[in-house]
Amino acid sequence: MEITVTSGKKITAFPNASLLESLKKAGIYLTSSCGGKGTCGKCKVIVRSGQAVSKSKMKLSKEEIDRGYVLACKTYPSGDLLIDIPKESMLIVEGKVVTGKSKDLLALLNSTGAGLDPLTSRIVIELPPPTLDDNISDLERLRRELLSQGMACLRVPFRFLPDLAKTIREEKWTITLSTIHTEDCEEIIRISSGDKKLPQYGAAIDIGTTTIVVFLVDLVTGKLIDVASTYNSQIRYGDDVITRIVHATEHNKLKELNDAVISDINTLLSVIIKNHHIDIESIDCLVFAGNTTMTHLFLGLDPAAIREEPYIPTANTFPLSFAGELGIGVNPNIPIYAFPCVASYVGGDIVSGILAAQLHKKQELSIFIDIGTNGEIVIGNSEWLVSAACSAGPCFEGSGMKCGMRATEGAIEGVTINRDTLEVDIKVIGEGVRPVGICGSGMIDVIAEMFFAGIIDQKGKLQEVVSGRVRKGEDGLEFVVYSGEGRDLVLTEPDIENIVRAKAAIYAGFSTLLKEVGFTFNDIEKIYIAGGFGKFLDIEKAIMIGMLPELPKDRFTYMGNTSVTGAYLCLLSRDLRTEAEEIAKKMTYLELSVSRSFMDEYMSGLFIPHTNIDAFPGVKKLMER
Amino acid sequence: MEITVTSGKKITAFPNASLLESLKKAGIYLTSSCGGKGTCGKCKVIVRSGQAVSKSKMKLSKEEIDRGYVLACKTYPSGDLLIDIPKESMLIVEGKVVTGKSKDLLALLNSTGAGLDPLTSRIVIELPPPTLDDNISDLERLRRELLSQGMACLRVPFRFLPDLAKTIREEKWTITLSTIHTEDCEEIIRISSGDKKLPQYGAAIDIGTTTIVVFLVDLVTGKLIDVASTYNSQIRYGDDVITRIVHATEHNKLKELNDAVISDINTLLSVIIKNHHIDIESIDCLVFAGNTTMTHLFLGLDPAAIREEPYIPTANTFPLSFAGELGIGVNPNIPIYAFPCVASYVGGDIVSGILAAQLHKKQELSIFIDIGTNGEIVIGNSEWLVSAACSAGPCFEGSGMKCGMRATEGAIEGVTINRDTLEVDIKVIGEGVRPVGICGSGMIDVIAEMFFAGIIDQKGKLQEVVSGRVRKGEDGLEFVVYSGEGRDLVLTEPDIENIVRAKAAIYAGFSTLLKEVGFTFNDIEKIYIAGGFGKFLDIEKAIMIGMLPELPKDRFTYMGNTSVTGAYLCLLSRDLRTEAEEIAKKMTYLELSVSRSFMDEYMSGLFIPHTNIDAFPGVKKLMER
Prior knowledge:
Strand content of chain A: 25-35%
Oligomer: homodimer
CATH architecture of the domain at 201-338 in chain A: 2-Layer Sandwich
CATH class of the domain at 201-338 in chain A: Alpha Beta
Radius of gyration of chain A: 26 Å
């Protein structure tokens, strides 16, 4: 049996294999947060012709079923098939679009003043063969050669001894060492045969609660080779870190969560190296940043105490681990550097973000906010840093939203609604691309635009009488953002409530933290915003809905995914790794959940833009118009 | 089915299990160099009554078969049995006889001036439980506590993180750490629950080509708990290091050799801990010394290049390894310290011997010789050390000799032959014990006594006409040393040739090395002799046969097994480990095999006492009488 994809590719349908599995074997990866259990509804494909048996239609709407949508993980071909894979079902590999991003990253690295000094190095060594007069052991010979080349200290873990004699003789006394600098010594992490200096790659990884992003980086040039991202498969066990910890603790399923994220990263790495015809042995090191819970789950550390007062992680700084210890599908001796965390609810992703924003080096008082599934806020300057966390939920990353998606090709990232005609204008990521979902920035726009067009009220309730685009859906009222071929893209009332709660939490975080450290919004000279919004976030609209404080627009800088950016920086620079460790050490943490002020602020934020409208004079003026 | 041992013990005969296996399951360990293949003939037992099927009688004499001897590994009971286990078949555990040895060892340790500072330490820590105001991570809490107690630096390998949170909470914030001092830092090697400070044991191990000896030592008091020893099961693959390397290299059987020695050590350890009711988790560290080949085979390192010119080992100094890496049956995180080696044919056992003799601290010119399967000689003082090696063969350890055995209970260790009556008087190890074999010192005595009684000539040929004890045996003429119940104990002509070759090699080593460094025997103020001769070695008789040079008797000191003694010292003292490393670094190595002088000396030594009788004026005088 054969499966033809409308893009033109023909693949083999393996017997008794689901469509998802056959596609995977052919190198076509679909998002599949539930791991093929038919529960996440992410691996939708459209059967254009041919016969197939679908064992579950869970998460598919009537409309979708009518149009031929099936879940690839639950569909088994019974003959040749012609299928269409919607963009939102594809696991995202950016491919050729990364050139610009690569230049920006290199420019950022250069701007820090740090040189290119990656986590691991390779050294090719030619050893003088032994003679009766020079008969020191192989290991001493190696050490003598390296010290004579200026290395101060060499550490050789026992595991490299068994094959050493054979390797250097088979390779006629020329071998390549991979080393990592630890504790003022170079430690061998790999011994390869012959001259294997090039190529050398490393991966910078952001492990988000909702999204996982992998950068493959050339360690010699610092160039970004490719970017791949996917939803964190742990989503099947819950949307936020708390439900994941509960799953790990009360159901004793830490291993399940650990396996899920390891398998996601393995998939992303294998897709990139396949696309670029890269030998897996060329990957020399991994650096990752994640919040404290994600870091624990990735490293297989018990997260139970993170959830219970007084909220204690196993560690905030982590010893180096190795791929073989964690089950990462690269050479087992490859080291994995974990970004240091600050506290149970401010993790390595935030340390990474501060490093990317270079906030820790700035004189002026600044705020950094990372809007992910958790919202983390840091205030400070080169002297001090105080952080806090608030739970925003995964809505801005497209998770838990009817037509949500990440900020990748096909996502509606911008929306305008004509105040008079109520006509909707959309902006889609990618050139000439059909919209397939709405990402975080698009959602902020829709809310702001609907509010000023009178389609929702201050509580976010849809006004059915106002617009023909408001209709009854499966989950109550919904607003049709886009209607075309395929399914309509809508924002439902539960979606809107999600966003309103999220923006209320973020604003409450801002204002409570400021109050705690004795400042007001006007003292803040810079606000750095990070998050998975893609290239574009309309600051004004974020202010309009009351998510961001009303300050002059030039004080805001939108930075995208700073967690992976910081991981990229540390992959390439020892100095910046030291800086990251200093940031983590310096940053203090305020627990907002015990603050009554936070709850009050949160409740006030459940209106658009805010109960205290005077905090938003510009928005007030607009509303009065 | 039941097996009754004449000592009184009753054990179960397991179906389809050999006698050897059933005895092992009941905790009765027999020597079995071939691992139960029926080829070494070491696991002999006597069936007194009952029925059993013996599948092989290899290595048993007609006389033995007539007396009911069987190979336990090839014998399968078909009903209840009554058996007798000869002492020579028992794997040796010294049990209660170690008290005196323990005192001597402690006295030696004290005499070096080194304090008791074992390879690993345990620290019990009570952590203050976290609060909202003191909410650092578990790891940081541990580190803070240890640093506040004065520890300078703590290294925590990644593998200890996954269980850390659970362990400290289950144990209500009191845990026990085992640590090892490496690179100016304390590294965690084990985290145990609760207060587990006592007891703590370590093992000091001598891995000889022929014999393996294990000391179990109390790390807190330095007391020797017990000693166990056995033949190195690698013997089944060849008697000397060269045939073992050939087996590992040409037959690609490194793993077989590695498994053999690991299994021997596991057996010895398990026997001791069983006898003393010791929890395996109380064993915290292992230190071993062995020649360079034995060290390689134990660590699983490829020994091929040791055998080929220019004779290169993989390493002479070894990174710490862990029990789990090597398959030692203690806690997998237990560190194993390998004695540093000097060159391919002067290994850690010799460095250990020099440390035990403290030769490296002496002003006077001294010689150290270790007579094992290899004979290694070191000459020097506190300024310099030069070493060389010569192959003696395993005869002095009882291997390859018809009635040979190690110097353990039941061994004939001393022999006198009345020059007039030719009556033989023997001295046996153990009180009131029936002799069961002849150990190295006994063999030297027999040769010397036979020579002066005229029973052998200068070439070592037996003179049938002289003594009624000379008779024809299976291997030609033989001399009956002891005749009693059980089998007769004899020395055959091939046995005598073995000993003559061995003593010739040792003397040639002495004299060639001296010549090379420009000294004569008279310059030597002290000669330290090491080897598995037990408590007793008659220096005069060793001179008589021309094995040792003729010097005043008070210049000789017999030291027993110095390899395991040095291992004991390093198990208990960091200073002495540093000294051992300095000895290895300081010692130079002379390759005698390329010296023509050595061959000439060896040929001259094939006479008793020597072709150059003038080198032995005292012996000459005796001969003239």
